[in-house]
């Protein structure tokens, strides 16, 4: 008789903790090897975690909603199905708070965000330079946290975070930035911009009788944090073009039946649009760039993120090396990533590394919008509803005629810190030209 530990996996090099969002099995259930046993959420991806071996779920040590460091034992499997099952563990007690860390002379420790869970305190052995284990762990935050801290002149070691041993997480630093405080403070202070009763996310809102109150899901919290940070970080401007997709519509109609018969894949407008967008990015590379302080980083990879709406939130899988794919290849990648996003089988690296993003609210009927630029990129393209419209065109004899055309509004939100309006409009003009004169060649 043997028991096997089930641990919180590390879902990416920079990820130090994960939230156990849902148990798919309960104590006493039989588990097969590679069968999903629980779901986790990190700041990169939601995923189902398979069992490493067959057996019976004997103990659950981490409850739903808890955030724990990677390698934490979350459950134990009994490898002999007939063995007795341990009684369910008692509810997890309130974890002890780690020891406070001395702040810099000009600042005091920041308060832990309201409602944030805190893992048990850890011992604090000292190193030769006098830094405690907690101090060293806190300054070893993720690359994203360190980047945000550097850009805003924040000293991470002076903050008390909600991660293990006070480790500062992305949520901590975003809450601090939203508070508007110049240095880490004990609590958000009232000001002309933050009246009494407000916190880092705005005025306090109280439920009224009859209201239904639900906690935000992990993916909704992460989306919220990312959107606020991205909106605050870039200088957003949006341009709009109306694009005639009649030529692409006719080509798609001509090829769709044979394409779907040969590949088993549905042929949509999106692969054609991605193909033309990548060609335009090569001509206007500042749209495939990133802002980094006083530097502009021009990416030589063309990795296109595609926003996918899920029942439980939004995720953006990335088509890597989109410039090397045909319309057929793009179709396969799109369908594969979208299907695995819906079944929570994406890997962390498949939602990272986008150099440009496309979002398609038009599938829900939206005519146009002003999407938020993902952090680390300079632009995002929004696709409006594709529909037939009456258009004034020039006839064969030069006269004006009314024609029915298949059209859509494209919106481009761009970071005005590095992208000028003329550059953005030239890019959209290139996309328009590419789609309106799309070649009849095969796909």
Describe this structure in words.
This protein is of the alpha+beta class. The protein has 3 domains: 3-78, RNA polymerase II/Efflux pump adaptor protein, barrel-sandwich hybrid domain (OB fold (Dihydrolipoamide Acetyltransferase, E2P)), CATH 2.40.50; 97-188 and 218-233, no CATH class; 236-436, Chloramphenicol acetyltransferase-like domain (Chloramphenicol Acetyltransferase, 2-Layer Sandwich). The protein is built from 8 helices and 21 strands. The protein has helices at 133-139, 143-151, 170-179, 218-233, 246-263, 270-283, 327-342, 421-436, and strands at residues 3-7, 17-23, 30-31, 36-41, 46-50, 55-60, 67-69, 73-78, 198-199, 202-203, 236-244, 289-292, 295-298, 304-306, 308-310, 313-315, 318-319, 356-359, 379-383, 387-394, 400-415. Strands 11, 14, 17, 18, 19, 20 and 21 form a 7-stranded mixed beta sheet that branches. A hairpin with a 4-residue loop joins strand 4 and strand 5 (46-50). Mean pLDDT is 79; it is low at 81-138 and 185-200.
Quick one: overall form? globular
Q: Quick one: how many beta strands? A: 21
Number of individual domains: 3
Low-confidence parts, pLDDT < 50 over ≥5 residues? Answer: 81-138, 185-200
Topology:
Elements: E1 3-7, E2 17-23, E3 30-31, E4 36-41, E5 46-50, E6 55-60, E7 67-69, E8 73-78, H1 133-139, H2 143-151, H3 170-179, E9 198-199, E10 202-203, H4 218-233, E11 236-244, H5 246-263, H6 270-283, E12 289-292, E13 295-298, E14 304-306, E15 308-310, E16 313-315, E17 318-319, H7 327-342, E18 356-359, E19 379-383, E20 387-394, E21 400-415, H8 421-436
Parallel strand pairs: 14-18, 18-19
Antiparallel strand pairs: 1-8, 2-4, 2-7, 3-6, 4-5, 6-8, 9-10, 11-21, 12-13, 14-17, 15-16, 19-21, 20-21
Helix pairs in contact: 3-4, 6-7, 6-8
């Amino acid at each position: 008789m043997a028991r096997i530990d089930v641990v919180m996996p590390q879902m990416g090099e920079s990820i130090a903790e994960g939230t156990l969002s849902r148990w798919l099995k309960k104590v006493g259930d039989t588990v097969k090897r590679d069968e999903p046993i629980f779901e986790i959420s990190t700041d990169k991806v939601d995923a189902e975690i398979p069992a490493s071996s067959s057996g019976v779920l004997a103990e659950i040590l981490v409850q739903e909603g808890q955030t724990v460091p990677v390698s934490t034992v979350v459950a134990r499997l009994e490898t002999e199905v007939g063995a007795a099952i341990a009684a369910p563990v008692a509810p997890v007690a309130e974890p002890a708070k780690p020891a406070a860390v001395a702040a810099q002379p000009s600042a005091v420790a920041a308060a832990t965000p309201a409602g944030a869970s805190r893992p048990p305190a850890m011992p604090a052995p000292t190193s030769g330079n006098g830094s405690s284990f907690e101090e060293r762990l806190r300054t070893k935050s993720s690359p994203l946290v360190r980047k945000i801290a550097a850009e805003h002149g924040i000293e991470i070691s002076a903050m008390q975070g909600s991660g293990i041993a006070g480790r500062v997480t992305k949520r901590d630093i975003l809450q601090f930035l939203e508070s508007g405080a110049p240095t880490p403070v004990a609590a958000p202070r009232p000001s002309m911009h933050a009246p009494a009763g407000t916190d880092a996310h705005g005025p306090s809102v109280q439920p009224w009788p009859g209201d239904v109150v639900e906690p935000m899901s992990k993916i909704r919290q992460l989306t919220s944090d990312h959107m606020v940070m991205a909106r605050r970080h870039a200088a957003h401007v949006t341009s709009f073009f109306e694009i005639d997709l009649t030529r692409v519509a006719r080509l798609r109609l001509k090829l769709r039946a044979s394409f779907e018969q040969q590949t088993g894949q549905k042929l949509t407008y999106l692969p054609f649009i991605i193909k033309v967008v990548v060609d335009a990015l090569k001509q206007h590379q500042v749209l495939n760039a990133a802002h980094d302080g006083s530097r502009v980083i021009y990416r030589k990879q063309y990795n296109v993120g595609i926003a996918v709406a899920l029942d439980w939130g939004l995720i953006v899988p990335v088509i890597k090396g989109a410039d090397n794919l045909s319309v057929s290849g793009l179709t396969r990648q799109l369908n594969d990533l979208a299907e695995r996003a819906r079944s929570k089988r994406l890997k962390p690296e498949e939602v990272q590394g986008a150099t440009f993003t496309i979002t398609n609210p038009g599938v829900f009927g939206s005519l146009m919008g002003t999407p938020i630029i993902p952090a680390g990129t300079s632009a995002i393209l929004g696709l409006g509803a594709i529909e037939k419209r009456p258009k004034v065109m020039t006839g064969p004899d030069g006269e004006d005629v009314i024609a029915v055309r298949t059209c859509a509004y494209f919106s481009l939100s761009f970071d005005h810190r590095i992208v000028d309006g003329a550059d953005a409009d030239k890019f959209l003009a290139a996309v328009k030209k590419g789609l309106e004169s799309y070649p009849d060649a095969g796909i």
